[in-house]
Amino acid sequence: MYQYDLVVIGSGPAGRRAAIQAAKLEKRVLVVEQGRRVGGVSVHTGTIPSKTLRETALNLTGWRERGFYGRAYRVKQEISAEDLRRRLLITLDHEVEVLEHQFARNRVQQMRGRAQFVDPHTLEIAKSDGEMLRVTTASVLLAVGTRPYRPPHIPFDDEAVLDSDELLEIKRVPRSLIVVGAGVIGIEYATIFSALDTQVTVVEPRETMLDFIDKEIVEDFTYQLRDRNMKLIFGQTVESVEREPNGGKCRVTLKSGRSLQAEMVLFAAGRVGATDTLNLAAAGLEADNRGRLKVDPETFQTSVPHIYAAGDVVGFPSLASTSMEQGRIAARHAVGVPASEPPQYFPYGIYAVPEISTCGLSEEEVLQRGIPYETGIAHFRETSRGHIMGLDTGMLKMIFSLKTRRLLGVHIVGEGATELVHIGQAVLNLKGTVEYFVENTFNYPTLAEAYKIAGLDAWNRMGEGPKEAPVATAQPTDTGNTVSPQDMPLKPKKKAAS
Ligand SMILES: Cc1cc2nc3c(=O)[nH]c(=O)nc-3n(C[C@H](O)[C@H](O)[C@H](O)COP(=O)(O)OP(=O)(O)OC[C@H]3O[C@@H](n4cnc5c(N)ncnc54)[C@H](O)[C@@H]3O)c2cc1C
Ligand SMILES: NC(=O)c1ccc[n+]([C@@H]2O[C@H](COP(=O)([O-])OP(=O)(O)OC[C@H]3O[C@@H](n4cnc5c(N)ncnc54)[C@H](O)[C@@H]3O)[C@@H](O)[C@H]2O)c1
């Protein structure tokens, strides 16, 4: 008889949701967390701190009011690192308190320490006070997440050359910042610091950024960043990073020979799975070269059936939102209770300044699948709410199938995008058509009215009934067939466990 039904390693979104789900099913659950407090990367160094920093920066700078009062408008003239940290600490305390309470209410047992496998059903836990403990369990969920990728040639110094965890501890707001890597983390922080009037330069080895987002949205976003003097350098690789002696400036030399200078460097070139200390071999498991684990995308089982993995450690999409859902499904499966499949489309929110949010297929994906389509676009400045808020930017784009008239994708850049997207997400997953937007009444004045405007924009070109569709050039799919709109695969290819 094992001591536990499920031992969860890691208390981030995947671990937390899994543990509570199993406890609700009256199973004996233990959560092992090596950090001082529960919550994982999401609460302590990732989602919540970065979004709190964003909110504080926008509030203290008066960013949202600048449409009315001009670019020089400020709520607080001198914004210090301490101003930014104060709100962060309060938010984190609340998050941890809520989580601790959830664990207690649901009788989830907790242990502070680092877990590793002794054999496939036994874990050894090195507690922070030096004590070693062994526990046995019927199933294990690895929800260990990731940590920043730190290559040896980058001279991280905890002060001026930083990864995204260390950025939260800065003592001063830099006047200039070089961000290496235009992934989601790099772009979110780059634009937040730009809103704080830091001169920001982004260096990205690829020719483009955020390739999974609809191109038209990324173009609008890029235009906005350049318009406020952010420097975006694509297609260039960093050769070296150095710092002048005695706390001087940082110099970033690119392979092209170009040299950049700034007070701080943020290195944000991806993350690696935190699997190296788990002694995976003792459980018969192996991680890939980025520390990630392969799982069955339906059940989240690893190659050892009673050991599950969920969250960032299994790779794409690496979101707090999807990690929670993966943890819940894994826990149900682990304790023998079936879980229904998640809906076909999940939203993606990038909390840059401005926000981007998207759900469903991009125009490039629709074209690639050979689906005849029409698009509808609305600019926030066309809405009365936009006028009231002083918005001169912001755009919502929807893509509809010409044959079925169903919504295929919604893509938004601008204020409130991460909230607004859920209207499109609901219509998409409930298989709604363009008529939903044309026939329904929206609150007025709201930014959500942009849905109506974009719906009408598409409808005006689509006409009343089904149409033959000349818009997209039908391309063979990767299966070699041409996709008919009726057969359109509503489920995006599962990338979660790749
Ligand atoms: C800067 C940043 C911003 C982000 N913003 C967003 C956002 O806006 N929206 C969004 O949806 N997602 C965002 N994410 C992603 C989100 O944070 C992750 O998807 C999420 O945290 C993953 O959850 P997880 O459960 O896999 O593990 P994590 O949150 O990574 O937690 C893993 C936990 O496991 C513990 N652990 C690891 N190994 C062991 C061990 N051997 N023994 C015991 N404990 C162990 C760690 O200490 C850690 O607490 C962001 C990430 C970053 C870095
Ligand atoms: N709002 C959100 O939902 C949110 C926010 C932040 C992070 N996240 C998640 O966290 C995960 C990690 O984000 P990330 O930004 O660290 O990784 P990423 O993989 O999204 O981006 C890394 C970027 O760095 C570039 N790069 C890779 N190697 C490089 C090198 N040697 N030098 C310079 N640039 C290099 C890549 O081309 C890429 O553009 C993402 O998958 C994302 O889903 C989500």
Main structural class: alpha/beta
The order of strands across the largest sheet is 1-2-3-4-5
CATH class of the largest domain: Alpha Beta
Shape category = globular
Q: What do we call the CATH topology of the largest domain?
A: FAD/NAD(P)-binding domain
Q: Summarize the amount of helix as a percent range.
A: 25-40%
Bound molecules: flavin-adenine dinucleotide, nicotinamide-adenine-dinucleotide
Rg for CA atoms? 24 Å
What's the number of domains? Answer: 3
Structural features, described:
It is an enzyme of class 1 (oxidoreductase). This is Soluble pyridine nucleotide transhydrogenase. Conversion of NADPH, generated by peripheral catabolic pathways, to NADH, which can enter the respiratory chain for energy generation. Residues 347-452 form the Pyridine nucleotide-disulphide oxidoreductase dimerisation domain. There is one protein chain. The chain has 498 residues and is an alpha/beta fold. It folds into 3 domains: 4-148 and 272-334, 3-Layer(bba) Sandwich (FAD/NAD(P)-binding domain); 161-269, FAD/NAD(P)-binding domain; 348-474, Enolase-like, domain 1, CATH 3.30.390.30. 29% of the residues lie in helices and 23% in strands. It is built from 13 helices and 21 strands. The chain has a 5-stranded mixed barrel with strand order 1-2-3-4-5. Strands 7-14-8-9-10 form a 5-stranded parallel beta sheet, covered by helices on one side. A 5-stranded antiparallel beta sheet has the order 17-18-21-20-19, with helices on both faces. Strand 17 and strand 18 (356-360) form a beta hairpin. It is globular and about 65 Å long. The two termini are 35 Å apart. Residues 467-498 have low confidence and may be disordered. The structure holds flavin-adenine dinucleotide and nicotinamide-adenine-dinucleotide. Residues 180-186, 188, 204-206, 238, 268-271, 317-319, 349-351 line the site of nicotinamide-adenine-dinucleotide (NAD).
